Amino acid sequence: MRLRSVLLAVVLLPAAVACGGGDGVDKQASCNQMKDAIKSIATLQAEENGTGEADFTKIYADAAAKIRTAAGSAEDDSVKTAGTQVADALDQLAKAHKSDDPTGGPEALEASGKLATAAGTFEQHCGPVES
Protein backbone atom coordinates (compact mmCIF):
# COMPACT_ATOMS: atom_id res chain seq x y z
CA MET A 1 0.00 0.00 0.00
CA ARG A 2 2.85 2.37 0.84
CA LEU A 3 4.45 1.66 -2.55
CA ARG A 4 1.24 2.60 -4.37
CA SER A 5 1.09 5.85 -2.42
CA VAL A 6 4.70 6.62 -3.31
CA LEU A 7 4.05 5.80 -6.97
CA LEU A 8 0.97 8.00 -7.04
CA ALA A 9 2.89 10.86 -5.46
CA VAL A 10 5.77 10.45 -7.90
CA VAL A 11 3.66 10.50 -11.05
CA LEU A 12 1.53 13.38 -9.92
CA LEU A 13 4.33 15.65 -8.72
CA PRO A 14 3.93 19.15 -10.07
CA ALA A 15 6.90 20.42 -12.06
CA ALA A 16 8.20 23.91 -12.44
CA VAL A 17 8.60 23.69 -16.20
CA ALA A 18 5.47 23.77 -18.37
CA CYS A 19 5.09 22.05 -21.73
CA GLY A 20 5.23 24.27 -24.73
CA GLY A 21 7.50 25.83 -27.27
CA GLY A 22 7.77 25.69 -30.98
CA ASP A 23 8.20 21.95 -31.42
CA GLY A 24 4.89 21.45 -33.21
CA VAL A 25 1.46 20.14 -32.41
CA ASP A 26 2.70 16.57 -32.30
CA LYS A 27 4.78 17.25 -29.19
CA GLN A 28 1.81 18.69 -27.34
CA ALA A 29 -0.50 15.91 -28.52
CA SER A 30 2.01 13.25 -27.47
CA CYS A 31 2.51 14.88 -24.09
CA ASN A 32 -1.24 15.07 -23.53
CA GLN A 33 -1.73 11.41 -24.46
CA MET A 34 1.02 10.35 -22.07
CA LYS A 35 -0.38 12.56 -19.30
CA ASP A 36 -3.81 10.97 -19.77
CA ALA A 37 -2.26 7.50 -19.43
CA ILE A 38 -0.43 8.56 -16.27
CA LYS A 39 -3.63 10.02 -14.79
CA SER A 40 -5.44 6.77 -15.56
CA ILE A 41 -3.08 4.97 -13.15
CA ALA A 42 -4.36 6.99 -10.20
CA THR A 43 -7.98 6.58 -11.27
CA LEU A 44 -7.69 2.83 -11.76
CA GLN A 45 -5.76 2.39 -8.51
CA ALA A 46 -8.54 4.15 -6.62
CA GLU A 47 -11.21 2.04 -8.31
CA GLU A 48 -9.30 -1.20 -7.71
CA ASN A 49 -8.62 -0.34 -4.08
CA GLY A 50 -12.36 0.09 -3.56
CA THR A 51 -13.08 -3.45 -4.74
CA GLY A 52 -10.15 -5.12 -3.01
CA GLU A 53 -9.39 -6.96 -6.26
CA ALA A 54 -6.43 -4.86 -7.35
CA ASP A 55 -4.51 -6.02 -10.40
CA PHE A 56 -1.71 -3.48 -10.38
CA THR A 57 0.32 -5.55 -12.83
CA LYS A 58 -2.33 -4.92 -15.48
CA ILE A 59 -2.79 -1.25 -14.54
CA TYR A 60 0.93 -0.52 -14.85
CA ALA A 61 1.42 -2.59 -18.01
CA ASP A 62 -1.58 -1.01 -19.77
CA ALA A 63 -0.43 2.50 -18.89
CA ALA A 64 3.10 1.66 -20.08
CA ALA A 65 1.75 0.47 -23.44
CA LYS A 66 -0.30 3.66 -23.92
CA ILE A 67 2.66 5.85 -22.97
CA ARG A 68 5.01 3.94 -25.27
CA THR A 69 2.59 4.37 -28.20
CA ALA A 70 2.24 8.11 -27.57
CA ALA A 71 6.00 8.51 -27.13
CA GLY A 72 6.60 6.74 -30.42
CA SER A 73 4.52 9.33 -32.25
CA ALA A 74 6.40 12.31 -30.79
CA GLU A 75 8.43 14.38 -33.23
CA ASP A 76 10.56 15.68 -30.39
CA ASP A 77 13.27 13.15 -29.48
CA SER A 78 13.48 14.35 -25.87
CA VAL A 79 9.73 13.77 -25.40
CA LYS A 80 10.05 10.35 -27.05
CA THR A 81 12.93 9.42 -24.73
CA ALA A 82 11.21 10.75 -21.61
CA GLY A 83 7.99 8.86 -22.39
CA THR A 84 9.88 5.67 -23.12
CA GLN A 85 11.70 5.93 -19.79
CA VAL A 86 8.38 6.25 -17.92
CA ALA A 87 6.95 3.30 -19.86
CA ASP A 88 10.03 1.16 -19.15
CA ALA A 89 9.84 1.94 -15.42
CA LEU A 90 6.12 1.08 -15.35
CA ASP A 91 6.81 -2.20 -17.16
CA GLN A 92 9.48 -3.00 -14.59
CA LEU A 93 7.02 -2.19 -11.80
CA ALA A 94 4.38 -4.43 -13.42
CA LYS A 95 6.86 -7.32 -13.58
CA ALA A 96 7.79 -6.79 -9.94
CA HIS A 97 4.14 -7.09 -8.92
CA LYS A 98 3.87 -10.44 -10.70
CA SER A 99 6.13 -11.95 -8.04
CA ASP A 100 4.84 -13.95 -5.08
CA ASP A 101 5.58 -10.98 -2.81
CA PRO A 102 2.43 -8.79 -2.74
CA THR A 103 4.57 -5.68 -2.22
CA GLY A 104 6.68 -6.42 -5.30
CA GLY A 105 9.76 -6.85 -3.17
CA PRO A 106 13.07 -5.10 -3.84
CA GLU A 107 12.36 -5.09 -7.58
CA ALA A 108 9.36 -2.81 -7.00
CA LEU A 109 11.49 -0.46 -4.93
CA GLU A 110 14.09 -0.30 -7.70
CA ALA A 111 11.37 0.28 -10.31
CA SER A 112 9.85 3.04 -8.19
CA GLY A 113 13.21 4.80 -8.07
CA LYS A 114 13.52 4.57 -11.85
CA LEU A 115 9.96 5.85 -12.18
CA ALA A 116 10.75 8.84 -9.96
CA THR A 117 13.72 9.73 -12.16
CA ALA A 118 11.74 9.18 -15.36
CA ALA A 119 8.81 11.26 -14.06
CA GLY A 120 11.15 14.17 -13.38
CA THR A 121 12.57 13.99 -16.90
CA PHE A 122 9.09 13.64 -18.39
CA GLU A 123 7.84 16.74 -16.58
CA GLN A 124 10.83 18.76 -17.80
CA HIS A 125 9.73 18.09 -21.36
CA CYS A 126 5.94 17.87 -21.06
CA GLY A 127 5.09 19.81 -17.93
CA PRO A 128 3.24 18.70 -14.83
CA VAL A 129 0.66 15.95 -14.76
CA GLU A 130 -2.31 17.58 -13.10
CA SER A 131 -5.13 15.56 -11.61
Task: Fill in the keyword field for this structure.
131 residues; mainly alpha; 5 helices; 0% strand; disordered N terminus
- Write down the overall geometry: globular
Radius of gyration: 14 Å
Task: Find the count of extended strands (DSSP E, 2+ residues).
Answer: 0
- Class of secondary structure makeup: mainly alpha
| Mean of pLDDT | 79
Multimerization status: single chain
Helices, by number, come to 5
CA-to-CA gap between the ends?
A: 20 Å
| Biggest sheet character | none
Residue share in helix: over 70%
String of helices and strands = HHHHH
Would you write up a description of this structure?
This is Small secreted protein. The chain is mainly α and 131 residues long. It has helices at residues 2-11, 25-51, 56-72, 77-96, 105-126. It is globular and about 40 Å long. The relative contact order is 0.20. The model is unreliable at 1-25 (pLDDT under 50).
Write the layout of secondary structure elements.
Elements: H1 2-11, H2 25-51, H3 56-72, H4 77-96, H5 105-126
Helix pairs in contact: 1-5, 2-3, 3-4, 4-5
Short description:
Keywords: Signal. The protein has 131 residues and is mainly alpha-helical. 73% of the residues lie in helices and 0% in strands.
